[in-house]
Amino acid sequence: MSSDHLTARHPAAPRLRTALLSACTALLLACAALLGAGAPARAATPSAGPSGSEIAQALSTGPVYVDPSYATAVNAAQQQALAEQIAATGLPIKVALVPLAKGDAFDGQSRTLAAVLKERLGLPELILITTASYGKYLDGFEYPTDTHQTRDAANAVGFLKELDDAGLAARVSKAVELIKSGNGTAVYKAETDRIEKEYAARPHTDGEPAGPGSGGSRPGLFAVAAVLVLAVAVGSVLLVRRRRPRHTAFTFPDAVFAADRAADEAGLRRQAAAEVLALGEAVDAADGATTPGLTRALDAYDAAGRVLDAADGIPDLAGVLALVAEGRAALATDPRLPLCFFDPRHGAAARRTTWRPLGRRERVDVAVCEDCGQALRTRRSPQVLAVRDQGRTVPYFEVPAERSLWAATGYGSLLSGPEDTLAGRVGTGEFSRTRPQRPSQPAD
Ligand SMILES: [Zn+2]
Description:
two-stranded antiparallel ribbon; binds zinc ion; 16 helices; 10 strands; Diaminopimelate Epimerase, Chain A, domain 1; globular; 3 domains
């Protein structure tokens, strides 16, 4: 997902000579890291996970590699069961469960992890199941060709209703089962079709206007728009997949980057839709008598659907995730932090911290994920969600607040208090006002 990112750099070396010197040092360190099989690179980035060679080495003797951070999700007995299930398929399946984060040895990308493992393992035929960069999803890669529909099989697992509450071991086991049956594409299509239909038919908060100027209810139009949006998203994923060449090296031509960006956006759109649906189900299941935040959760659900329908790019889709998190927090009994300020796709924040934006005197209080918190502590730049604004690519929070709800709120981090919510701001039309005006867009 990271091709759309940039890394905001602080002026650590204000003078040119110092800058050049540190660039040379960085280059030398990088060369040393390459020559030294990754060990110095790990030392240089303390938060990074295992290197490709470590994972490949483990996979050369067994079919399953589980990073220590997943050891409770997939324990020794479950690893053994997976290994036996894989052996019974007779297929060259390898599983690499590794937390993927921006700035790690694979820059948080499963496709880079897969390319590295393919290279290192040197097997003529290989089926790889990996963790995905996002949430509960898995990614699949098959070499030399996708004969067993591995990609769709692995992706389908994230959408299967029966696996909603299943752990990682069960999801990997299901992916292996689908790969063995060779019908991953049909299952994937059925599941994404189901999500399209459910999303279109999802309950609305009728009779409960989210705020003044909220556009009224147009359920028919709304449903049609939702289906169209999802159809385009799913269609473009399929299209991009067919077009994407097999990666055999670490150089990706620009066209592939562009295709990857499109796939990232389409994938995020599907995932956002699935999360909105899941929030709707959680709201339905919640007991009004014991859930004081139920109305707020409903507002968040309604706003998330509205933003998803109008979403124009990754920053808006990230906003859908932030709204879903707001709804989840309203249903929860314990206090919850918003999603990571620097990029909501990093997931829930682990803590709040203060941070001084480039060129500002005052510090701001933001919620950050584990990786971004670590980056700030070690004076590295966190991985920031970048946006195009007036022809430039900038961190999203540098867009003037009057042009971006997300810059104004930091996806939840910069809200002024308990009464100030993302859903409330969407309800009062703040999201619509920041949209570029188009002739076809109905006036608020
Ligand atoms: Zn983060």
